[in-house]
Amino acid sequence: MTDRSGSGAEPSPRRRGQGKLEAHVLSVLKGAAEPVPVAWVQERLGGDLAYTTVITILTRLHGKGAVERERAGRSFVWTAVADEAGLAALRMRKVLDAEADRQAVLASFVTALSPNDELLLRALLAEEPGESGESGGSGELGESERDR
Questions:
Q1: How distant is the alpha carbon of residue 115 from its chain centre?
Q2: Which of 16, 59, 116, 122 is least surrounded by Cβ atoms within 10 Å, i.e. has the fewest?
Q3: pLDDT tens readout for residues 106-128
Q4: Bridge partners, residue 71, by sequence
């Protein structure tokens, strides 16, 4: 990358993708022993993220159900309720929920898995609900399955 500014300064680093920033914020938040304010998260992220950027990321994560917030004076304190794997699962669920033919999407997804990932998925589906130590695993039914 060439510095075109003529100032001789180092070129600015490439921007991180939204998903990477969200994962980083979530990781920092998971390290908190109690609900924390935005400034606490911003300080631990390091770098030069603006306070408003951190608020925006936390608000997006809240909308996705990955964090919770509660009033503390005139602002909020934040708590992680999902980890990075949970955030990825939320993204996958959002994509699946947006499609009309869930069966076709799931079938295409499964056929595109590597043999090792397919075996892992089969093992996870064979587990009893709650057996994996997570929030119910395969025992959780989506809205369409519960309504049947």
A1: 25
A2: 116
A3: 999 999 999 999 999 999 999 87
A4: 76
| Closest-CA residue to 41 (of 19, 73, 69) | 69
* pTM (two decimals): 0.62
CB 96 within 8 A of CB 104: no
81-87 long-range contacts, Cβ below 8 Å, gap at least 24?
Answer: 82/26, 83/26, 83/27, 83/30, 84/23, 84/26, 84/27, 87/22, 87/23, 87/26, 87/61
- Separation CA 148–CA 143 (nearest Å): 9
pLDDT in tens, 36-77: 999 999 999 987 899 999 999 999 999 988 999 999 999 999
Question: Across the chain, where does the E strand assignment appear?
Answer: 67-72, 75-80
